[in-house]
């Protein structure tokens, strides 16, 4: 018995959704299932193809005249002891640059060991413990020998008789392969990178992750990440079967960015062997049988060649015997180390929770950069079904020490209150449905009498369309309300007018059958709450096999956005009273980065054209615009801009070695070919990345902060303004004006 139709009814006058199913079995055991979904005028059709094993390998999805083909499959490769799978998604008949293809490789335990997606490869290795191999020896029938069971069996009723089958087994532990990545790479001497996994269980823990790309016959490493683990005792009684049953939790993370490895030549040589002919020579019939199965029923025409050539080159490091990989050199601004420590005392109520986290930057010698270590401590206290978590940022500089608290309910997990670094307190109250009904904020003053308390109240009202309205009363007494439909989408917002004694709409939103915003109306009022104007915008979506288009009507102005599939171009233009204005044409690369931006006049002539080039790691390296000098960019290991060259002038940015802040602490300019540089200014940052001092044009400004606030307070030095001298009775007098100017500036500008 199979489903032939399925109907869903919605509230709020939405059209019903009817789904019909049709099944077409084939003689070879394969089958096709056609699903047609109709809702209003929208019709979506899905045609799924299953092979004789019942696995989905092809789907055709049609909507609004556009048909997208989705191909997928998996095949076990015995020589590699791995399972290779693929997914391909593209409009029917699309060119290669429109196709989205991804491949993945799983080991025998189901762990992802390699993934290719959007031109990026991800390779993983794992720590593995012992495998339990169990063999059944004897099968013994165990009968319930109670008196009642024996008596009922004699009289032939067999009532109360129960039995089961017990299998006597023998177990054997098979050791798994030892860790590989931490031994193959010449890592900094960090002894914590390891995994003390319990050998009594079969578990797998992520050991390393290598992210790279294959570009121009060269492997480019983007990042290397290595993980270490620690053991924690289990709280409570352990089963008799296992004397030690500890938990294994992550404790160390080493990240190496912009790594350069010495395996390039070896990797390239191995990769070059992966062509259609030599794969067959290496693995015999796998090409004839495997690739044909890999492309079930010619579902992916031409994909087999791409698997065996371009894409497969990136799989070599993951599938073939691991290569010896050495880093050429550890570099400054490229390595970070993170650690996590846990409470490990079963008698402590905080057992198993995070106790401390640290973060530091490593230099090119693999050692900690001075003053880069940041320590965060965690403390917990449980009382009356409440858990209080205290987070303390410990620092040798008292100005950057900060502490905050969070109180949560042990029973519900809801946040009951918080205390910020400035001692500001926030309390939350909820109704029986765990909805927020009251928020109280208290800002401390010099004395308790100077404390400022602000309360915000929330009320909930069920609407006729099964939606809900949330009324909010602000501390100022102003009332606001937001309405949501049954799907949780915002439909309107209101402001209560005391003058009109009624709710004034601010925004109303209507949705189309596709669930997207269709109509949006905004309202504005004068000081007497009389309506001044309303602005209505109407959104329309159109799709064809060649492009997708979105138009937004705003009065007599219409804004269009059209994306062309084959050329990956986004065209944006406006019409004013049916007269087209200038247009912007943006062309994208296959990885989603912008390749070119053109500004077009109404007659399609190019007014301005800008080209963008990127380095192997995806960072912008060159920008070229018509009529303007080229701009070149260089970066450090943390992808921060270090040099900008334009028209023979180079701007050099310097960053603190002990912080990952994006804010440059020094900038200077230098003409090409000249040894003379001019400093533009400098900043001094504290341990939280906030500006403590800025020097621009010889003038310095100092900033101070409270707690962990990002806002700094600065008192300008009192300027001495002298008035003209006054000579009276033979004496010379001077007048001095002293003024203080308090300013608040954001410290991370």
Question: Can you characterise this structure?
Answer:
The protein has 749 residues and is mainly β. It has a domain of 48 residues. The chain is 7% helix and 52% strand. It has eight helices and 50 strands. The strands form five sheets. It has a 42-stranded antiparallel β-sheet. It has a two-stranded antiparallel sheet with strand order 11-12. It has a two-stranded antiparallel ribbon with strand order 45-50. Strand 41 and strand 42 form a beta hairpin. The radius of gyration is 34 Å and the shape is globular. The C terminus is likely disordered. This is YD repeat-containing protein.
- Identify the quaternary structure here: single chain
Which word captures the global form? globular
The total of beta strands comes to 50
The SS-based structural class is mainly beta
Distance N to C terminus: 66 Å
Q: How many individual helices?
A: 8
Mean pLDDT: 77
Radius of gyration: 34 Å
Helix fraction bin: under 10%
Largest sheet: 42 strands, antiparallel
Low-confidence stretches: 265-314, 316-324, 721-749
Strand content: over 45%
Protein name: YD repeat-containing protein
Record keyword descriptors for this entry.
YD repeat-containing protein, 8 helices, 749 residues, 42-stranded antiparallel β-sheet, single chain, globular, mainly beta
What's this, in brief?
The chain is mainly beta and 749 residues long. A hairpin with a 5-residue loop joins strand 4 (42-50) and strand 5.
Secondary-structure blueprint:
Elements: E1 5-8, E2 17-25, E3 31-39, E4 42-50, E5 56-63, E6 66-77, E7 82-91, E8 100-106, E9 112-117, E10 120-128, E11 131-143, H1 147-154, E12 163-174, H2 181-184, E13 204-215, E14 218-232, E15 247-257, H3 264-272, H4 276-283, H5 286-294, H6 303-308, H7 310-313, H8 316-319, E16 335-342, E17 354-362, E18 374-383, E19 386-394, E20 402-409, E21 415-419, E22 425-430, E23 436-443, E24 452-462, E25 468-473, E26 479-484, E27 490-497, E28 502-511, E29 517-525, E30 531-543, E31 547-554, E32 557-564, E33 569-576, E34 579-588, E35 594-600, E36 606-614, E37 620-625, E38 631-635, E39 641-646, E40 649-654, E41 666-671, E42 677-685, E43 691-696, E44 699-702, E45 711-715, E46 721-722, E47 726-728, E48 731-733, E49 736-737, E50 742-746
Antiparallel strand pairs: 1-2, 2-3, 3-4, 4-5, 5-6, 6-7, 7-8, 8-9, 9-10, 10-13, 11-12, 13-14, 14-15, 15-16, 16-17, 17-18, 18-19, 19-20, 20-21, 21-22, 22-23, 23-24, 24-25, 25-26, 26-27, 27-28, 28-29, 29-30, 30-31, 31-32, 32-33, 33-34, 34-35, 35-36, 36-37, 37-38, 38-39, 39-40, 40-41, 41-42, ...
Protein name: YD repeat-containing protein
Organism: Pseudomonas fluorescens
